[in-house]
Amino acid sequence: MTNLINWNSFREFHHVTNQLSDLVYNGGRSLANKNESTENSVADWIPAVNITESESGYRIDSEIPGVDREDVKVTVEHGKLTIQGDRKFENSAENETLHRLECSEGTFLRNFRIPDDADPDSVKAGFKNGVLSVLIFKSESSKLKQIEVEIS
Length: 152
Description:
This protein has 152 residues and is α+β, with helices and mostly antiparallel strands. It contains 2 helices and 7 strands; from the N terminus they run ααβββββββ. The chain has a single domain, classed as Immunoglobulin-like. The strands form 2 sheets. It has a 4-stranded antiparallel beta sheet, with no helix packed on it. A 3-stranded antiparallel beta sheet has the order 3-4-5, with no helix packed on it. A hairpin with a 3-residue loop joins β1 and β2.
């Protein structure tokens, strides 16, 4: 049987857009000066996310089932939130033949720009039932303040 290589166009597109946004984000400076291991690595798969906003802040929920909490790293640096990690699957038994592998495995990496009204020092993360939840609170100075107007 011929070996087939599963080409993932979304992974390639995500890699290119990450590189382009890094170029724009860094003002056109060379990517060679950046941390090669995190910034220029190609992820094996991309976890799905939901991003919501409330009055108090932002929430990013990322689906990463089958990943241990110890294999996930969340960092904030220079206005960018990075979620990265690794998902490993057990090898099939010696007497089993693998016919189909649809569940993604390997490294994953997602980058998000932190909004200007958010406080990067307030980031908190939690992990439950295969969902990583990252909370980024808004800074106090960005919250809407109502001023009462006196009529004379």
